[in-house]
């Protein structure tokens, strides 16, 4: 039962990655691409990580996975901000 | 065994691609990029030969060689970039 | 058969993506695009190392191959921006020559592969390395090879790194620093740099019995320095003056001291007494971590720190004082 739940979580996470990638490829400009990418990947990775933590079962591993997710959140939020700021500054010039 | 062969051949292809690009490009940065890729190909050949299936322990000797190789590659790249920058400065003077 | 081809599927995808990324990075005319693709290539390679049961390499590749090489190449792009590229055409004949050369190399590599895989039922060093592990003072076989069995190699490799960074120092002055970063990036740095330092310490310590060690720790520490420089700290967290010089040579110095100490006590050079080897390896690795990190960060800064004199400056000063 838990395995099934975990698999559903992992696969819905993968779906988020998939739609994020489509958004990256198909959306017209940088800001909307960033929007698609960061939203989809953050949530997608979160779902994958919850699924994997359930599959693994040990609380210590779950803690490590949570830490990974938080670091990726921190990194992707900051880098998305930096990229969009750079783009804005270039457009003003 | 097939995995070993697959990755070793991939390494050989990467090496080839790198060498070819290093010889055909005529500016420094693409060449450095190409040399790094061909280096990665060599590392891949080494490490794939060290892998002996999931059951046997891998051979640590090639791993150690590749580990030092990675550090040497990045320091050589740094030196090449510094030389390139100095050459550029001398051109501008 | 079905199950085997299923387990091969991720390998096939990985191999195809590696070759595709390398091709895209190398054939791209836009350099920035090429470098970014190369960083992606390095990250993918880290996954391949993990797949081939080489976690030590996966750590090192993610930090060094993808992270530091990428950072070095990206910062070099900034230098390129001013100058103009002379894109000469390569003649058709030399194209053919290069392709022929690549083909010959391919045959040679194929021959070597065939030799190692089938012709010689190789007497592998692996068995020897793994069977002597309990005498080496550590239980991670890669660390045992690096710092015990083949300590000579690692000592000389540290010399290579030092030589390269001395070359960088001799050739030019460091690049201009960056302006103070905005609040978001500073916030990230406040979290990231302490975390990287703690991770480096952990990798150094854990290297004795699990994937990790001086190279990975040094690279992680160097990454902390680079992040600091990007945020506007021009020294990139490095010490200044004499202390920086000492930290550059600390790894080699301690390595040699240990080697000499062992020799004086009647052993062979770098052949540690068994009871001491674990702690000696840790001491050497700690110093090597500091040296590697200092060297890599200096390489990223791109040359002599501003206060340091070059040979030419020194000569000029002597002329003046006469």
TrEMBL record, chain A:
- What's in the keyword line of the UniProt record? Membrane, Transmembrane, Transmembrane helix
InterPro entries the UniProt entry points to = PhaG_MnhG_YufB (IPR005133)
What GO MF annotations does this protein's record show? sodium:proton antiporter activity
Q: Which residues form a coiled coil?
A: none
Give the highest taxon in the source lineage: Bacteria
Q: Where are the transmembrane segments?
A: 6-28, 40-60, 66-88
Name of the protein: Monovalent cation/H(+) antiporter subunit G
User: Which species is this record about?
Assistant: Candidatus Thiodiazotropha taylori
């Amino acid at each position: 039962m838990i395995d099934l739940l975990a698999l559903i979580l992992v696969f819905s996470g993968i779906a988020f990655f998939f739609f994020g990638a489509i958004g990256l490829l198909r959306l017209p400009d940088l800001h909307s691409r960033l929007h698609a990418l960061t939203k989809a990947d953050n949530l997608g990775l979160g779902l994958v990580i919850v699924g994997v933590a359930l599959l693994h079962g040990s609380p210590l591993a779950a803690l490590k996975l949570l830490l990974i997710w938080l670091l990726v959140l921190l990194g992707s939020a900051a880098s998305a901000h930096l990229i969009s700021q750079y783009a804005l500054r270039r457009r003003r010039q | 065994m097939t995995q070993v062969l697959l990755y070793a051949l991939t390494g050989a292809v990467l090496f080839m691609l790198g060498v070819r690009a290093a010889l055909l490009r005529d500016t420094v940065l693409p060449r450095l990029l190409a040399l790094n890729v061909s280096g990665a190909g060599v590392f891949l050949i080494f490490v794939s030969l060290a892998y002996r299936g999931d059951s046997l322990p891998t051979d640590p000797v090639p791993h150690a060689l590749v580990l030092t190789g990675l550090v040497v590659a990045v320091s050589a790249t740094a030196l090449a970039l510094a030389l390139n920058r100095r050459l550029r400065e001398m051109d501008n003077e | 058969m079905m199950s085997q081809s299923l387990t091969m599927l991720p390998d096939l995808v990985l191999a195809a993506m590696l070759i595709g990324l390398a091709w895209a990075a190398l054939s791209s005319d836009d350099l920035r695009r090429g470098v970014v693709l190369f960083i992606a290539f390095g990250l993918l390679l880290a996954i391949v190392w993990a797949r081939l049961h080489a976690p030590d390499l996966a750590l090192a590749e993610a930090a060094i191959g993808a992270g530091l090489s990428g950072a070095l190449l990206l910062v070099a792009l900034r230098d390129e921006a001013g100058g103009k590229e002379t894109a000469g055409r390569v003649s058709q004949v030399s194209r053919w020559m290069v392709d022929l050369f690549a083909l010959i190399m391919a045959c040679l590599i194929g021959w070597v592969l065939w030799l190692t895989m089938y012709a010689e039922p190789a007497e592998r060093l692996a068995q020897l390395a793994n069977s002597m592990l309990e005498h080496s003072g550590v239980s991670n076989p890669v660390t045992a090879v690096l710092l015990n069995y083949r300590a000579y190699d690692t000592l000389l490799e540290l010399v290579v790194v030092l030589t390269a960074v001395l070359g960088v120092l001799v050739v030019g002055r460091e690049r201009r620093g960056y302006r103070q970063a905005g609040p978001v990036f500073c916030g990230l740095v406040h979290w990231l740099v302490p975390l990287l330092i703690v991770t480096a310490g952990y990798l150094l310590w854990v290297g004795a019995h699990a994937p990790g060690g001086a190279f990975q720790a040094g690279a992680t520490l160097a990454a902390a320095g680079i992040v600091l420089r990007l945020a506007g700290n021009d020294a990139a967290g490095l010490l200044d003056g004499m202390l920086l010089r000492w930290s550059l040579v600390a790894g080699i110095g301690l390595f040699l001291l240990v080697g000499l100490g062992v020799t004086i006590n009647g052993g062979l050079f770098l052949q540690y007494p068994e009871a001491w080897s674990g702690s000696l390896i840790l001491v050497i690795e700690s110093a090597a971590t500091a040296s590697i990190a200092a060297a890599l960060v200096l390489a990223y800064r791109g040359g002599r720190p501003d206060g340091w004199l070059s040979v030419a400056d020194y000569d000029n000063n002597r002329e003046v004082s006469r």
